[in-house]
Amino acid sequence: MGHRCRTCGYTTAKWMGFCPQCRTPGALAEVRPGNGSVRAIPIRDAAAAGAASRCTLGVGEVDRVLGGGLVDGSVTLVGGEPGVGKSTLLLQLAAARAADDHVLYVSGEESARQVALRASRIGADPERLLVLAETDVDLVAAAAEALRPALVVVDSIQTARCGDADGAPGGVTQVREAGARLSALARRTGVPVILVGHVTKDGVLAGPRVLEHMVDAVLYLEGDPERGLRYLRSIKNRHGAVDQVGVFEMTDGGMVEVADPTGLFVDGWAGSVPGTVVFPALYGRRSLLVEVQALVAPTATPQPRRSVKGVEAARVHQILAVLERHAGVPCADRDVYVNVVGGLTLRDPAADLAVALAVASSRHEIPLGSLAAWGEIGLAGEVRVASHAARRGAEASRFGIERTVSGQTTDRLATAVVAAGIVGGGKVRLAAGA
Question: Which residues constitute the domain of residue 307?
Answer without folding.
Answer: 263-419
